[in-house]
Amino acid sequence: MTTLDLNQHHILITGGAGFIGSWLIRTLLARYPQARITNLDALTYAGNLANLDDVASNPHYTFVHGDITDANLVNELMKQTDVCVNVAAQTHVDRSISGPGIFTETNTMGTQVLLEAARTAHNDAGITKYVQVSTDEVYGSIKTGEFTENSPIQPNSPYSASKAGGDLLVQSYHKTYGFNACITRCSNNYGPYQYPEKLIPLMIHKASNDESLPVYGDGLNVRDWIHVEDHVAGIIRTMEAGQPGETYNFGASHELANIDLVKQLLATLNKPESLITYVQDRPGHDRRYAIDSSKAKQQLGWQPQHTFKDGLQQTIAWYQQHPEWVAAIQQRCAQQQQQLEQGIHTAKAPAGV
Ligand SMILES: NC(=O)c1ccc[n+]([C@@H]2O[C@H](COP(=O)([O-])OP(=O)(O)OC[C@H]3O[C@@H](n4cnc5c(N)ncnc54)[C@H](O)[C@@H]3O)[C@@H](O)[C@H]2O)c1
User: Fold this and answer.
1) Which of 164, 234, 292, 314 would be a feasible disulfide site paired with 250, CB 3.0-4.6 Å?
2) Residues labelled catalytic
C-alpha cells in the first residue's frame, strides 16, 4: 500500500476555522511540521479563527478568507495544492430545515467547484489526492445492525441530502476521470471547540447556567458519539493511505439515546434531571444512526482511542475552563442576529441560534 508522506505536500484544507477543520490543521502541523497548509474558510457564523490561535503564526500555515463556491479563487489556490481535504460545510440539521438553499449551495455545489478545480489543476494532471469529509447521516436511519460503506445512501434531512450530493459527485469524478478521491463518513463528533449550537456543548452550557435542557421528542433517538481527535486521526489515515475511489466509515461504537446522554452529562455536572424539558420533535428526525468501521480498522489500521466517559469529562472541563470562548461566539451571533433584523446582512446569515 502506498502511503503519502504529508511532509512533502502542500495541503489545502477548506473549513479549517470550524470545529473539525481546526483540529485537523492543528494535528497535521504537529505531526507533519514540514507540510504547507492553506486554510480556506468563509468564516460563516460557525467559523472562528480563535480556534487556531495557537498555530496562527506558524510559517507553514496560511489563512485565506474565501468561499469554496468561488471558482476563480479555488482555481488559483489549487495551482499550489497537492492534497485537498474538504471540511467546509453548512452543518446544522435544524438550520437546514429552516433554510435549505445554502446547504445545497455549499455542500453540493461547493464540492463540485473544488472537484473541478482539483481535477484540472496542474495542466489537467490533477492534484495528488482529494478527501471529502462526509457524514454517517447520508445513510439515513437504521433500526437494527450497522451501515457499511456498501449500504445505499438514503438521506432524510436537507443537510444530509446536500452532503450526499457532494459524495455522489466525488464518486462520479473518480469513476469518470480516474480522479484520486476518497470519502470519509463519520458519526457524531464531540470535543473542545465545537460550536455551542450542537447537542453536547449546548447542554453543557445550559446545565452550567441552570437553564432548562430541551430534548427533542421522546429523547430516544440514538447516536454513536466519537471524540473529534479520533475522527481527525481517521481523516489523516485516509489522506495517507486511503485508496482511490474508496469510502471509509469512522465510528466509536458508542451508541447512546439522547436522553441518556443528557442524563449522563447532568450527573457529571452534578445538576438535577428536573432541568430536562421535552420539546416538539424535529421534522424527519432520524431515529438511529449506526455504522460499521471495520474497513477503516482493517485497511487503514485506525482505532478510536478515547472512551466516551473520559472524553465527555475532558470536554466538559474544557468548556468550563474557556467561558470566554463561548461568550465571544455568543456575542458575535447576537451581533449577526441584530444585523439580520436590521436587514443589512447578506444571504449567508445564520438563521439564529
Ligand atoms: N460535527 C460532526 O458531528 C460531524 C460528523 C461527521 C461529519 N461531519 C462533517 O465534518 C465537516 C465539518 O464539520 P464541523 O462540525 O467542523 O462544522 P462547523 O460548522 O464547525 O465548521 C464548518 C466550517 O466551514 C466553513 N464554511 C462554511 N461554508 C463555507 C464556504 N462556502 N466556503 C468556505 N468555508 C465555509 C465555516 O466557516 C466553518 O469554519 C462537515 O463537512 C460535516 O458534514 C461533522
Assistant:
1) 234
2) 136-137, 159
